[in-house]
Each structure stands twice: as structure tokens, then as C-alpha cells.
Please model this.
Amino acid sequence: MPPYKILTVFGTRPEAIKMAPVVKELNLHPEEFTCLVAVTAQHREMLDQVLRLFHIKPDYDLDIMRPRQTLEEITTRALTGLAGVLKEARPDLVLVHGDTTTTFVAALAAFYQQIPVGHVEAGLRTGDRYAPFPEEMNRRLAGVLTDIHFAPTAKARDNLLREGIAPEHIYVTGNTVIDALKATIREEYQFGDHGLAGLDFREKRVILVTAHRRENWGEPLKEIFTALRDLIRRHPDTALIFPVHYNPRVRQLAREVLGGQERVYLIEPLDYEPFVNLMNRAYLVLTDSGGLQEEAPALGKPVLVLREVTERPEAVAAGTVRLVGTAYRDILAAAEELLTDRQAYLQMAHAVNPYGDGQASRRIRSALRHYFGMTVARPQEFQPLGATGQK
Model:
């Protein structure tokens, strides 16, 4: 009988951003659900930024992050810590998100104690177990252990069906990142002391860049940065903003190739709120991130993906995202087309957003109600809407 106890578990900034709207939605209905939050904090500082922004105070904080931690260390510390949390909390269901090591380990820990698992953002696949690494295997392994799958898109649902998941265990909800985005974007936002206060977004077409994935370390990143340097040199009406990841391999190479270049801003990583408001004012996004492939289309921003494969093919098919890889010539050619061909730019900017409408968290709550037998009819599934935001 309700209220059912739901333990949400996450450990990184992207997970926290995408789970925060779910936590908020469940907390709005205490007669139905008691929502507890456990964080592993495999990424400490960046996680804490999001917890403060969304006013989430964890009920359990494992604080596992250590300098130069390995995947093995993250896995064992999280598994041991979550075992104790689950024994104390005794939830009716454990809710995990996405594809981090925390995601897989939390699903495994729940399985060991025979507690059902719900997987938010289930069903993303590249088909290559090493790309992205280790995320592709994390989400596949979590999927095997999951009882209720919250697929963000019909494509993600189809991936799960091909893997033998019963259709009655899958709910298509849209992606909760759009819920978080809509709650955070403000047209009047002021950047303050982020090294951006003097930049005139009306005078310069801003190219926003993120690049940090481990499969791109070394020569691929060098190709990316060199292409970006030459792109900015060729187009005086542009500026490049690169919040540089804390990883020393990324930082050193970024300084070597892009440091000291005119109209190139190498800034510290931004909290979620200034970052998405920066993206809202950008002209073009280049990234090797997964989440930005979902967020930028919701704002009408074309995205060039600096990877060889993506687990988010919906945006590629819709035309909001283009997979360009890491080769210098390919990056330069694709970016130049969008800077010089207005029709090509508008075609991407106005394409249909396949990822969400800001109601994913509500659909997840409805699906949980259905799973626990609180309602008989299955909730209505997400259908893509047109892109919103600036064009």
C-alpha cells in the first residue's frame, strides 16, 4: 500500500541533473511515494553544484571520490557502500539513471538484495561495447538487472525489445534532461564572474565546445582543437567558448593548441545553470558529450558530435545533430558549412526535437503508479514535438 518508498541513486553531475526533476515530482506526491536520495559522489564537486541548484539534500552520501580513482575502485567502494544503504533504507524500488558506474553498481546492489530496479534513460545503445567506454557496458548491464525501463524515445524502446525485454516492462517517457532544462533557462540570466561578462553575444556568433571523453584523449583531441583554432581564425565574427574539463590531459592540450588565440575563451567548467544559459545564447555547439545532443536541439541549436558513434541516433535521424568524428578536415568542413550556409544552419536549427517536452518526470511517476498497481491503464507515452527556443 502507498506511499511506496523509492530510493534514487546517482553519483555524477549528469545523473543529478536528469534525476532532479524526478525527485521533485515524486516529492510533490507524498501520499503516493516517499522519495529517498543516495549519492555515491563518484564526482564530488560537480555533483554538489547540481544538488545546490535543485535544493536536493541526500539522505545517504557515500562520498567515494578519491584522487586518480580507477573504475575498479569506484565499483567496489560504491557496491560496498550501497549494500549498507539498501539494508537500512529497505526501499520498494531503486531508481537509477543512465550509464555511469554508479548506475550499474546500484542496479547490481539492488539485485543482490532482491529489490526491484527502475532504469531512467534506458535503452540507449551504440552497439560497440568500448564506445563510449565504460558507459556502453554500464547501461547494458544495468538493463539486464532492471525490472521497469523508462525509455526516453521509441528508438530506445526498440533497442530493449530486441534484447528480449518484455514490452509491458517498458515505458516511453521522453528525457528528463528537457524537464531540467526548461526549469533552468532564463532569458535575463547574467553570467557574472565566469570570464564571459565582456562578451557581446549580439556581435559575435558564439561556438560552444565541450570535449573530454577518454576515447578522444591524445591525437583525436589534438585534431579537434586544431580544427577549432583554424575555424575561429577564418571567421572574425565568431568567438569560441570552451569550458575546459578538469582532466589534466585535456587541459594541457587545450592550452597548447588554443591558449592565447584571439576570440578563444578557455574557461573553468561551469555549473549547470550558467552552462545551459550559455548554450541558449550560443550559435553552434560542438561536443563529444552525450547529454548535449539532447539539450541543444531543445533550444534550436545545431550540434556537431565529435565522436565516431553515438547512442543517440534519434537526433541524427531528425537532423538536429550531425556525427562528424574527430578528423581535422571533417570537423572544419562541417562547421564551416553551418557558418557560411544559412539554409543548412536553419535546416538543423528548425528540425524536430526528438527527446522531450518537459513532462518526462510526470510520465515516470505515472508509470510507477501503474507498476505498483495504483492505476490500471498504462500512461500515455511521449511523442516528439517540434524544437523550441531560439532559432
The two ends are 48 Å apart (CA to CA). The chain has a mean pLDDT of 93. Residues 192-350 form a domain with the Rossmann fold fold (CATH 3.40.50.2000).
